[in-house]
Amino acid sequence: PVEIQAKPVSEKAIAVTVVNPLSRSVSGTVRFGTGETPFALAPVESTVLEMPMPQALEPGCVTAVDLPVVVRIGGRDFSVPCAFRALPVRRVRPGFDWKDVPVTQLPNDVTPCANPRRMRAPQPWGGPDDLSAACQLAWNEDALYYRLTVRDDAFALCLNEKWGHYAWYANDSVQLFFDTFGDGPAKRLSGLEGPDENDMSYELLPTNETSAIVFRRRAPDFQLTGGVGWGLRPDTIETNVVCRFAWDPETRTRTYETAFPRFYIQPMTLAKGSTPGFATMVFDRDVPTEPSKQYLTDVDKSKGGSVGILVCPSVYLPVHILA
Predict the structure, then answer these.
(1) Phi, psi (5° rounding) for residue 62?
(2) Mean of the pLDDT values across residues 37-47?
(3) Distance CA 74, CA 29 (A)
(4) Selection from 212, 321, 221 nearest residue 275 by Cα
(5) Which of 45, 95, 49 is nearest to 71 (CA)?
């Protein structure tokens, strides 16, 4: 009879929202762990209850949090599945050093790329030296900072002139997905899956061994980013977001560093306690004349999430706490 939504508000607390969608009043209790909190809601009313985080969140580690929430109404207990993944992201001062920012290893969940144009089956993943990645995230009131280091056995580009940058994601590129409101997990509990009006995506697209462009494939609804004439547009090369890229043939490492000024990730809030969703997808192309070999991602595909340029970024993302 009620809807339950849970999201972290700090490294030590979770906000559990109880929503009454009915046209009559509802009262009961919410039990989490050993604590039990009463609630009484008028028709179409909601309330927010703050509860302790059941486990510690470590910098640089994505932690899966499973919440055993039980709602009691009219003497009956209803178990509600509430779960999310969380990663604390630290605030930094201008001129910070990446050496001081925790490193998060992306899971080695490597998947071959399916492509009908492929002439032969792709070789299997050859281990971390074939494709693996680690990222660093930081923020302040001016920007969200992102650095990705990728181990790769070969660097390959096919700058397709027919399709242009729309197809360059299939090179040794990176796709970044933003759930700016961090509302994907809650919407999924209500049966709503897929991108919504506040989701966006960027792609870091190398053009040679020492440079890359930033391409915004998806943008939020323009009413959320400045309105008509001012809002962020999709399918746009964003020259105001700069990516420093380098391929090192000796260490076989590609490195991407970029800062997203707050204007270009709106309506995301860069403030302590904000919990936007974020996901990374790393492509691997070994031969310029052949399609991409494989990709890895931190999107949880085990729960049915799609990946690729049609990824549902608001469904299975880590929630990043700006601490």
Answers:
(1) -85, 120
(2) 93
(3) 10
(4) 321
(5) 49
The pLDDT of 52-68, averaged and rounded, is 84
How many other CB atoms sit within 10 Å of the CB of residue 50?
Answer: 11
Find all residues with CB under 8 Å of 191, minimum gap 6, and list them. none
What would the two tokens of residue 10 be? 């700090």
Residue 290 token pair: 């052949």
- Left if phi > 0, otherwise alpha if psi is -120 to 50, otherwise beta: which for 308? left
CB count within 10 Å of CB 289 equals 7
Give the gyration radius of the chain's Cα atoms: 21
Give the span between the Cα atoms of 72 and 26, in whole angstroms.
Answer: 11
pLDDT digits (tens, 9 = 90+) for 182-238: 887 777 766 766 678 888 999 999 999 999 999 999 999 988 988 877 889 999 999
- Please state, in angstroms and rounded to a whole number, the distance separating the CA atoms of residues 312 and 48: 27
What does the buried/exposed string (b/e) look like for 198-207 if buried means 16 or more CB atoms within 10 Å of the residue's CB?
bbbbbbbbbe
Specify the amino acid at residue 141.
E
pLDDT at 148: 97
How far apart, in whole angstroms, are the C-alpha atoms of residue 223 and residue 144? 22
Please state, in angstroms and as integers, the Cα–Cα distance from residue 240 to each residue in 50, 143, 221, 224, 304, following that order. 39, 12, 20, 19, 35
Q: Dihedral through CA 119, CA 123, CA 125, CA 131, nearest 10?
A: -60
